[in-house]
Amino acid sequence: MSDLINVARGLEKADLVIKNAKLVNVLSEEIHECDIAITDGIIAGIGSDYHGEKEIDINGAYVTPSFIDGHVHLESTMMMPEEFAKVVLPAGTTTVIIDPHEISNVLGLHGISFMHEVVRDLPIEVYTMLPSCVPATPFETAGFDLNSYDLSLLIDKPWVLGIAEMMNFPGVLSRDKNVMSKLELAKSKGKRIDGHAPYLAGKDLCAYIASGVKSDHECTTPEEAIERLRLGMYVMIREGTAAKDLDALIPVLKTCNTRKCIFVTDDRHPSDLKEHINGMVRRAVEAGVNPVKAVQIASLNTAEYFGLDNLGAIAPGYKADMLILPDLKSFKPDVVIKNGVVVAQNGKLSVQIAKSEEISMRNSVNVRWITPEDFRIDAGIKDGKVKVRTIEVIPHQLITRSVESEVQVSGGNALSNLENDTLKICVIERHRATGNIGKCFVKGFNLKSGAIASTVAHDSHNMIIIGTNDADMYTAAVALIKCQGGKVVVNNGEIISELSLPIAGLMSDKEFEYVVKKCEELNQAASSIGCTLNDPFMTMGFLSLPVIPELKVTDKGVFDTNKFGFIDIFEPSFQKV
After folding, report:
1. How confident is the model at residue 358 (pLDDT cuts 50, 70, 90)?
2. What is the pLDDT of residue 356?
3. C-alpha pair distances (Å), 366 with each of 217, 363, 428, 481, 556
4. Cα three-residue angle 139-145-148, rounded to 5 degrees
């Protein structure tokens, strides 16, 4: 403390001084010239005529606070956190707030603890929001059920900032006891509660916010965002790999008070990581958003929302987390500084990031013994044709349509119909070896042979398989069991592409480049057997999520969100509600 005061007063030299900076000041919302003095990783002073043991004259380059990702599922990158850090640090992200929802559905509290252990020594700062909805719904089988008591074991940890996205907004509105106890837990500890409430509006939205939920990352229209801002919510503007909302919400950033707007990525695949929060800032500025406000959204707003009082700005007493930029257009930092240390320069790391020590983790693919017969769909007739309710995917959207299609029946087994692109889809419970298998048909993948399969299937992450024939679907399922989870493409009984994800069936223990290459190979292999989707594994991964309309399949059966219940796919009187 004494050294910091003396450096701030100019009585002692700083450890580091950034000379001749154009400071993007997110506190005063202006750009001004100054020197920046840093000691012990803390900003001591902003002004002129500071001197340091080391001085960097940046000759009028811009300095901004480094960026914060306000909501991200690291598991969605399919990589260990150290690989994530290697990619996003050079892009200017030095702090992330994670929601380990995915791994918690597989491993419960052990999954949360695992994620904390593997991020502790990284040169990126990681805070955690405890998952609020494990399992996400009662209509699927997850690996664990986390109640308020479970969360209370971690809520006081300094690295825990609150309760993550409360997806069960119907439970909030109906005052479900389990949901209420989680909300009260966070409120009693003075911690944040993040929201997740697509399409919620009016008095129901008021009730949701009054319960203590203070943010939402599900806004897809300006009208939704503006209503939430008017009611005091923070709007997390999401730009993930599947869900992209930035372009739609640009009008809000150009016309409204943006102090309660935050940039988040939510779910991103490896190929979309090299440009991270900085890419959102760049695109916002290109669309006409004031550069200072765009930087503010990516830094100060996020820090203030989560109560991180020493992050998000460049001012005395704040952590020395900053970026040196040649301009306010590209937002590709020349230098990234974390806690006063240069961690990246010119797009490359300047520090070593050690590989995580091997942490004990059980095999998470626990499936009852399966046979090719398990992939039969009994049609109720011996031979002929039959009408079936079918999931129809909509390109570039998570929602689906419930449509009627026709398949051939042979020996009582309903078969995939390649002529009209009606393929068999199965979800196999993989946590507790219950033997549950949900079976249905899906349109939109256009496979002409073989099968594709994955253990990444939101939100409970059971095993999901789509195929043209039962034999290849069986081969794909066995391959996933043998590699302890992952993604595979099978054709004529042979595995033609595979990515092993042995960490909870969600993450690889390999390097970034390897994972990106394997993902590309998987998509190419799927294309080689006829698939017309750019990323079939991402599309497939959301077909088991029963909270998203219109028709989905879980290990417990086929779920119709219009009827809000399970249905028989052979019911002849199918009418959309």
Report:
1. low
2. 76
3. 33, 7, 10, 8, 16
4. 120
DSSP conformational letter for 382: S
Rounded average pLDDT over 285-311: 98
Map out the domains of the chain as residue ranges.
99-216, 372-567
Mean pLDDT of the region 330-342? 97
As given in the structure block, the two tokens for residue 474 are 């069986």
Residue 346 — very low, low, confident or very high, per pLDDT cuts 50/70/90? very high
Q: Cα–Cα distance between 325 and 299 in angstroms, integer? A: 15
Integer CA distances (angstroms), 496 to 270, 316, 473, 505, 515, in order: 21, 57, 13, 19, 16
What angle is formed at CA 209 by the lines to CA 255 and CA 565, rounded to 5 degrees? 110
* Matching CATH number, 99-216, of 1.50.10.20, 3.90.930.1, 3.40.50.360, 3.20.20.140: 3.20.20.140
Q: What is the pLDDT of residues 30-66, one digit of tens each?
A: 999 999 999 999 999 999 989 999 999 999 999 999 9
> Which percentage of the chain shows pLDDT scores above 70?
98
Q: How far is CA 25 from the centre of its chain?
A: 30
Closest among 577, 474, 504 to 101, alpha carbons compared:
504
Find out whether 89 and 274 touch, Cβ atoms under 8 Å. no
